């Protein structure tokens, strides 16, 4: 995210060792390391959807083309699919975490909760807290009028920053606002291993199906009581269907990967993309959502799940666009790309003399992307990577590429 290894004595103290059970036929495919580089490539496209929506459409002059009667309306709707990018991140995270923990349970007979939390802390916390600290200090020093309000800081420090955005309808400063989705993911990470440790596969399946139904009931209940878009969009309970679909894919595949032909993969991927565009185009929520607008959420989640199924291939046999080395490398640093992309927009925004309109927007977008990649690469190399190496001490099923 090296082959699995025997954990150190220090790691074992976090969870008592168990006797390794006989392999169950249903989980027989879950053995050895687990690495799918094509999913890194897909993760990059999830980031790209968010990036394009936050950049090109901001003052670019493209909005008139997005009207329903425009010839280019449907293709250009792809540029406003940040919602789909976030959903795809959620589906991917849920699939990967569920699959890795199921493999761990198959190999060891249990899920080591302490080790799992240690791995997540080592992966998420160094960049997250460094970014929050630097942003908080710089905002107070350089832009006192646009301070990152200290009232928001405790919420984000505890990974519940999405809740004041949902309940209050307010946002923190520009560059911190995307971190709401990391809060939602961390809340998922808190609960997921507890369920996977305790529940049998059929009850896990039932819980996932329940998490497909619950968010629709919550969303409709909120709209019935006059809830606004922020209340729905940033609410953890309204995002459970994306996590449920990722978990259902892991449970249904039972450790294997689809063996679709290339044509079938393209058809599934195109169907997922078309479903996302149609949902965003026809049901995009306004400030006060209509009943029909709520259809966007489950449809986009389903489209993201189809993209995952179209991309996932047997280990060691990945081909196609998402498996290309450049996209895999960019996907590997996608966490940093997501965290830093708003900073890049701020930097480019203060550069004088850039042209206006579509040409200027394209120049700003290209420069912002370059800055984002540079910042994420530096972060991965000097901040994240040392902790990722330490993370291996708490790992039973490796999800990192083999060295060399």
List keywords for this structure.
single chain; 404 residues; mainly alpha; disordered N terminus
What does this structure look like?
The chain is an all-alpha fold and 404 residues long. Helix content is 63%, strand content 0%. Helix 2 runs parallel beside helix 15, helix 4 runs parallel beside helix 8 and helix 4 crosses helix 13. The protein is globular.
DSSP E strands, number: 0
Tally of individual domains: 1
Percent in strands: under 5%
State the helical fraction: 55-70%
What Rg do the Cα atoms give? 21 Å
What is the compact description of this entry?
The chain has 404 residues and is mainly alpha-helical. 63% of the residues lie in helices and 0% in strands. It has 16 helices and no strands.
Task: Present the secondary structure layout.
Elements: H1 9-12, H2 37-55, H3 73-77, H4 82-108, H5 113-142, H6 153-157, H7 162-168, H8 180-198, H9 201-224, H10 229-233, H11 240-253, H12 262-283, H13 296-311, H14 325-332, H15 334-349, H16 357-391
Helix pairs in contact: 2-4, 2-14, 2-15, 4-8, 4-11, 4-13, 5-8, 5-16, 9-11, 11-13, 12-13, 15-16
